[in-house]
UniProtKB/TrEMBL annotation:
Biological processes annotated in GO: DNA integration; DNA recombination
Keywords, ordered alphabetically: DNA integration, DNA recombination, DNA-binding
CDD domains documented for this protein: INT_ICEBs1_C_like
Protein name in UniProt: Tyrosine-type recombinase/integrase
InterPro entries cross-referenced by the UniProt entry: CB (IPR044068), DNA_brk_join_enz (IPR011010), Integrase-like_cat_sf (IPR013762), Integrase_catalytic (IPR002104), Integrase_recombinase_N (IPR010998), Integrase_SAM-like_N (IPR004107), Tyrosine_recombinase_XerCD (IPR050090)
Region (Disordered): 408-427
Domain of life: Bacteria
Boundaries of every Core-binding (CB) domain copy: 68-179
Length: 427
């Protein structure tokens, strides 16, 4: 006689339509338990689904259902699914957008009753609302810190078009997971048209301003970092995660294979933004010289620091751009440093990321083709390169037109020669 399965282990049965079904008790997001069913064409398929369901239950991860409210599904998605598919920084930003904006507006809607009209209405109201009030300040903060609209003085700070687009992306991604789990039949966020974003024109430093900034940064202990950012277009997190083993000074090149980001209160090392971001970048000679000098300077700092030289827990060995005590440099601190450098150099204020745009602009001005710039910057597609830097390609395009003139070498005939060459009309 077969041993009877214990309570909570789940059951697998064959349905009249030939499919198999399994049932097990799982946690809801509110902490209560309920019986949930999974289905499949074969017993093995259902057994795998049942095992996955039970594993989540053992870990205390709530299971989703089609009748749960959307806010609970978002909690489940962000806790159980998103961390496996998205990078930590992306999950962190999604959690913030969900907590501040999506859950207060759509959280009480049933997942299976959410409609395109709900999404469209939410996005329309979100775009027009005051950011202070969207965050529910008047409900969560003391009386003296109530939202501006609650006290009759609207700050008129509206969400940017990019923020609206991100909100829409979160909705699409979450509801697509609900489709994968067969909780809903269509992604209503996909039906709603994606909000358009007007790109802000990038204002990088020109060649003269870049030289002035680097001249001002020459005495700075991280001069090699500023030079590298302008010369190679590395992202901030990529540059700060470089180790000496990533750099080959003899062959004048470096390898980008990790980055560092601040996630809440921690500095997390991870893989670069895209697979194309893992790349080898040639180094100009002035960067090789600066890095050599920086290596000698770092060794002196290590000797001066002595026992105070304590790398941060979890950081890779041999970081190039550290603090004076050997710990990883906080990416947020670079913006403050750069603001001071811009002020001292008397150039317009730029962000650290704008140095990446500066690098691309300088390369374009020197006639470097877009494909090479794409590889240098680590863009995922050449379209991204062309779209981002189309406004600074005027010089290159004019040079291409001039080369076409030189290649064809066509001289415009004068009026007299045109008259002589014109054939007579024949009867």
């Amino acid at each position: 006689m077969a041993k009877r399965r214990a309570n909570g282990e789940g059951t697998i049965t064959k349905r009249k339509d030939g499919r198999y079904q399994a049932a097990a008790y799982v946690y809801r997001p509110d902490g209560t338990r309920h019986r949930q069913f999974v289905y499949g064409k074969t017993r093995d398929e259902v057994a795998d689904k049942l095992t996955e369901l039970q594993e989540k239950t053992r870990q205390g991860i709530p299971a989703a259902s089609s009748t749960m409210v959307f806010g609970d599904f978002l909690t489940y998605w962000l806790a159980a699914i998103a961390p496996e598919r998205l990078k930590p920084a992306t999950v962190n930003s999604y959690e913030g957008l969900t907590r501040l904006y999506i859950r207060p507006a759509l959280g009480k809607k049933k997942l299976n009753r959410l409609s395109p009209a709900d999404i469209r209405r939410f996005l329309t109201e979100f775009k027009a609302a005051c950011l202070c009030c969207l965050r529910g300040a008047d409900k969560e903060r003391p009386e003296e810190k109530r939202s501006c609209c609650a006290v009759g003085r609207c700050c008129k700070r509206r969400p940017s078009a990019r923020t609206v687009q991100y909100i829409h992306a979160v909705l699409r991604s979450a509801l697509q997971q609900a489709i994968r789990e067969e909780l809903i039949t269509r992604n209503v966020a996909r039906i709603v048209e994606t909000p358009t974003v007007t790109r802000k024109e990038v204002r990088p430093l020109n060649a003269a301003e870049a030289r002035l900034l680097l001249k001002t940064a020459r005495p700075h202990r991280l001069y090699a970092l500023w030079l590298l950012l302008v010369s190679t277009g590395l992202r901030r997190g990529e540059a700060l995660a470089l180790t000496w083993s990533d750099v080959d000074l003899a062959n004048s090149q470096l390898r980008v294979r990790r980055n560092v980001q601040r996630i809440r209160r921690e500095l997390i090392f991870g893989t670069p933004k895209t697979t194309r971001s893992i790349r080898t970048v040639p180094l100009p000679k002035h960067c090789v010289r600066a890095l050599t000098q920086h290596s000698e300077q770092q060794e002196r700092e290590r000797l001066v620091a002595g026992e105070k030289w304590q790398p941060t827990s979890g950081q890779p060995d041999g970081l190039i751009f550290t603090t004076a005590t050997g710990s990883v440099t906080d990416p947020r601190g670079l913006n403050r440093m750069l603001t001071t450098l811009c002020r001292d150099a008397h150039v317009h204020r730029v962000r650290v990321h704008d140095l990446r745009h500066t690098c691309a602009s300088l390369l374009l001005a020197q006639g470097v083709d877009a494909r090479t710039i794409m590889e240098t910057l680590g863009h995922s597609t050449i379209t991204m390169t062309l779209d981002t830097y189309a406004h600074v390609m005027d010089t290159t395009l004019r040079a291409a037109a001039k080369r076409m003139d030189d290649a064809l070498n066509l001289n415009e005939p004068d009026e007299e020669s045109e008259g002589e060459a014109k054939p007579d009309n024949e009867d």
